Please model this.
Amino acid sequence: MAQVKGIIVNDGGAPARIMNFIANEAISAGEALVFHTNGKAKLATDNNAGVCGFALTDAAAAAQVSMVTGRGVMLYVICHADVDAGDMLMVDETTPVAGSLIQTLEDGSGNLTNVTVAIAAEDAPAAGGLTKVMVM
Model:
């Protein structure tokens, strides 16, 4: 049985759903997810696209993973160490940290150049890891 790691802070009645899917690869609770072309959940790797949700549970490849979906939901998700409260966050598309969130980039003129999927509600831990965010 999958172990829930306290990913949901408090949905407060926000329009959130928890749905189960088959994992396309190994997934850790708190990672950003999208769908593979085969219909299975996989780690988000495109910082120019949104996400389907965030993993509520750890899952091995081909096992069931629970995904939290919805906007305005407060969750603990995996973020990089340099994330600070108030930062706009996007998916990190680099391996081996695909599925985690980093600060949304600007083009040098103050324009955001990637899709923001969440806003940090607290500073990330010094080594990175589960960080409270509001999903957009």
